[in-house]
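User: Fold this, then the next.

Assistant: Folding the first:
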Amino acid sequence: MEAVRSGWLQGRYHGDGGDTVADMLSFKAVFEINPFEVGTTHAKERRIFAARRRLVDDLLDVRELRRRPFLSLSNGEMRRVLFARAILKGPDRLVLDDPLGGLDPERRARMRTVVAELARHGIEVVAPTRRERNGGCPLALPVKRHLPSTARAVVEMRHIDFSFGGKMLFRDFSWTIREGERWLLCGPNGSGKTTLLALITGDAPRSYACDISVFGKRRGGEGVTLAGIRAKIGEVSAERQVYLGETPERQLAEALSRNPRLLLLDEPCYNLTTKATKRLLRKVAAWLDGHPRTAAVCVAHRPEHVPAGFSLTQRLGSTGAVCVRTARPAAR
């Protein structure tokens, strides 16, 4: 099972090929037109489709994604494209399952405008949600205890340059994570948060061309095995939930059973109810409180999705090259 997970998670990074967003949102793809069909031009349908495409371009900003391979998109960007594809089908009623899940604060704020505009065009939107909706940018929470700054480095990334899917994500990027540090990793959809974690775990194969050390061992160094490194890392991932059907609770139980030296939480509360979210975050906080030397990184778009004790913040930019602010403890 571990091989299946790793293979799937690595697959998206093995190449920039495959269908682009433009392919996914084309008339033929949306309506599954037989490529061997002859004698029918669908002229009327294409004119209507062109008007809908202008609508989704304006509402969802998919123009900026059209040339990108679909598999290179972030989770939030994929949701935008799938939302656009659903609109392009021309439904009278659109049922969206938790449409704000996985979206950054700016995108969530714009969703009301999107829904109102769709209603103006005669499309009824039904959008059940699973949790309370609080806006704003997540803030790191006060940490209960600190290890000295001389604590050993768990992850060291030095002057990383990395592009993916035709987009420059990291330029001259450096980051050190030490024992006992609890980091909040945040930034807009598509800024490279999940990719950054994949560089740490080795799921992004090009990490071997980067200057990265994990647990004091250089990636690709002599005698360093990926399996040996991963055995010391616990992960909870929204991607594993969505695409492999593994619930966050199951993932967390497995992650903590490893007694990890590094815990990576990539949107761990995705798709959970408010009650389930609080329960999972309490388990994370309690476990970390009992394991003060374990380092942890949490990716979250909402303050209520950040476990207690995360006091350092790394912010990623959205315009290609990373804009990194000096990490510092959050204001108490």
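Now the next one, as you asked:
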Amino acid sequence: MSAFVVAEIPALPLHTAGKYVAGAYLVAVAIVLIYVAIMAIRLGRIERELGELLALTEDDRLAARGAGEDKERADGSQDVSNTPRESAPA
């Protein structure tokens, strides 16, 4: 009999529980927003570093092509190390 009485009594009165529920939702939303902000910062940093690496590889390719053209002019042969290749899926 006492089990039924305990089951019907809420842990907190409903008029005071609303504050805690709202607070819990606010904390959960804040944590999600902080997580998304951290991921956005990391993504921006990775994109910036990837752009820098891409620029470096383009500079290296241009320098290698320039050196390859000089080599081709000097001995009359072609430099095949810088020619584009088709890649097969792994």
